[in-house]
């Protein structure tokens, strides 16, 4: 077990930069991935939410760039959302110090000027969402001929979002002699296509199951009639003071919820796909800076996003698929901290919740509306588990799960 970054074969410069950020002990995925990546191997890594996967690929990239100090873009990180791209960029900025030029962000929704000038000024790293990058490639605004490292962060989500054709077109113009790495907390069977087509004998690193949420999160569940949900939510929020992230299913639902909470006196911001990029950035930074206590969001904010000190994640609406549950609740309980995740559901969603629990191997503590644990909830639950097969089939969407098949596939 590696206790300190100094035990890794990384340069004194990077060690110094890590110490400046107060990072002393590498997380397990970092300790395992950094040496393999620095040897140039392809890496397919899964590790639970909030366990430092970003630095697991950024440190080797920075080492590579310091060692081969040649002009041109040598590393490309593809991510599913603009917010995540910005966060990866920030982490690289914190670590690169003055020895490397500023990286380039390539995402939609923001003006091109700054992005293009970073490229012209010699960025070595590009962090991009696939759509905008393809656009730049098409317009010959970016040259990726010197590329040595390609990282797909949240690869399964990018495939879900339909980015596969785009990723294929991007990969087709990259040098064949390169290193490719994939990082996520979850994997879906579809990722096998990427692995087969773009990775060479990847080293498979797995920390924790790809079907399990973070161990630092305590789960509770509230059965509540749909027309009482809002009231329940307010009671939950009023009981505590910490930062809270609430997931709703739709953009309209997100709007409505954020508006109602603001009206009730909670400082609430919102983030969803129909908001302008400026609004999305203002919401996230407002929460980071403490101007808002509550962030209401769609699953747009469920992947990779790190907001400091989220104490409580609330599933106001159930997630569409079990992976989303893992990522949503993973916005709390990060970097060794603890968190709470509450799930609200209606009576007719009981079976859906139980399937979710069974799939993820978790037990959510059933709570009463007065926020106390329900009496004998455990016995009640056992009785219901016995009847589970007699219950109506769960919605198909809840069954779209990677399952053991995938785990086995990647572990071989
Ligand atoms: N070695 C370390 N020691 C302490 N904190 C760390 C270390 N590495 C990363 N962190 C911090 O942990 C937090 C989570 O890191 P990161 O966002 O990389 O997690 P992740 O594994 O990518 O999670 P997700 O699956 O949600 O994307 C960040 O705030 C990061 O600064
Ligand atoms: Mg991440």
Description:
The protein is of the alpha/beta class and 412 residues long. The chain has 2 domains: 5-206, P-loop containing nucleotide triphosphate hydrolases (Rossmann fold, 3-Layer(aba) Sandwich); 217-398, P-loop containing nucleotide triphosphate hydrolases (Rossmann fold). It contains 17 helices and 14 strands. It has helices at 12-20, 28-38, 53-67, 82-96, 112-120, 130-138, 155-160, 164-172, 191-198, 229-239, 251-263, 277-288, 322-329, 350-360, 377-386, 396-399, 403-411; strands spanning 43-47, 75-78, 104-106, 125-128, 149-153, 179-184, 203-207, 217-223, 243-247, 268-271, 294-297, 310-315, 339-345, 365-367. The protein has a 7-stranded parallel beta sheet. A 7-stranded parallel beta sheet has the order 10-11-9-12-13-8-14, sandwiched between helices. It is globular. It binds adenosine-5'-triphosphate and magnesium ion (MG).
Secondary structure elements and their pairing?
Blueprint: H1 12-20, H2 28-38, E1 43-47, H3 53-67, E2 75-78, H4 82-96, E3 104-106, H5 112-120, E4 125-128, H6 130-138, E5 149-153, H7 155-160, H8 164-172, E6 179-184, H9 191-198, E7 203-207, E8 217-223, H10 229-239, E9 243-247, H11 251-263, E10 268-271, H12 277-288, E11 294-297, E12 310-315, H13 322-329, E13 339-345, H14 350-360, E14 365-367, H15 377-386, H16 396-399, H17 403-411
Parallel strand pairs: 1-6, 1-7, 2-4, 2-5, 3-4, 5-6, 8-13, 8-14, 9-11, 9-12, 10-11, 12-13
The chain binds adenosine-5'-triphosphate and magnesium ion.
The site of magnesium ion has 4 residues, from helix 3.
């Amino acid at each position: 077990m590696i206790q300190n970054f100094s035990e890794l074969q990384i340069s004194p410069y990077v060690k110094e930069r890590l110490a400046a950020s107060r990072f002393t002990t590498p997380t397990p995925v970092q300790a395992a991935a950094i040496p393999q990546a620095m040897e140039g191997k392809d890496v397919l890594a899964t590790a639970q939410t909030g366990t430092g996967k970003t630095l697991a690929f950024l440190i080797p990239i920075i080492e590579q760039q310091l060692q081969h100090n040649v002009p041109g873009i040598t590393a490309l990180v593809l991510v599913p959302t603009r917010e995540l791209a910005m966060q990866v960029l920030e982490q690289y900025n914190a670590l690169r110090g003055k020895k490397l030029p500023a990286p380039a962000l390539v995402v939609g929704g923001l003006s091109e000027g700054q992005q293009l000038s970073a490229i012209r000024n010699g960025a070595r790293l590009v962090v991009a969402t696939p759509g905008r990058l393809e656009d730049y490639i098409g317009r010959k605004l970016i040259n990726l001929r010197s590329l040595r490292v390609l990282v797909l962060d949240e690869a399964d989500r990018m495939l879900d979002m339909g980015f596969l054709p785009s990723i294929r077109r991007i990969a087709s113009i990259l040098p064949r002699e390169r290193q490719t790495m994939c990082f996520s907390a979850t994997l879906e069977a579809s990722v096998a296509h990427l692995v087969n087509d773009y990775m060479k004998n990847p080293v498979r690193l797995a920390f924790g199951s790809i079907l399990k949420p973070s161990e630092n999160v305590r789960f509770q569940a509230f059965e509540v009639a749909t027309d009482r949900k809002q009231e329940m939510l307010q009671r939950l929020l009023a009981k505590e003071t910490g930062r809270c992230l609430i997931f709703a299913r739709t953009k309209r639902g997100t709007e409505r919820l954020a508006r109602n909470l603001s009206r009730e006196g909670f400082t609430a911001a919102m983030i969803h796909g129909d908001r302008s990029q400026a609004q999305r950035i203002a919401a996230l930074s407002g929460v980071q800076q403490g101007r808002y206590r509550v962030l209401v969001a769609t699953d747009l904010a469920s992947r990779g996003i790190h907001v400091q000190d989220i104490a409580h994640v609330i599933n106001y609406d159930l997630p569409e698929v079990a992976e989303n549950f893992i990522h949503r609740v993973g916005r709390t309980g990060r970097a060794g901290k603890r968190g709470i995740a509450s799930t609200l559901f209606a009576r007719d969603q009981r079976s859906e919740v139980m399937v979710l629990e069974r799939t993820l191997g978790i037990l959510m503590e059933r709570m009463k509306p007065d926020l106390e644990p329900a009496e004998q909830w455990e016995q009640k639950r056992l009785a219901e588990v016995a009847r589970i097969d007699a219950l109506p089939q769960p919605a198909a969407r809840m069954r779209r799960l990677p399952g053991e098949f995938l785990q086995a596939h990647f572990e071989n």
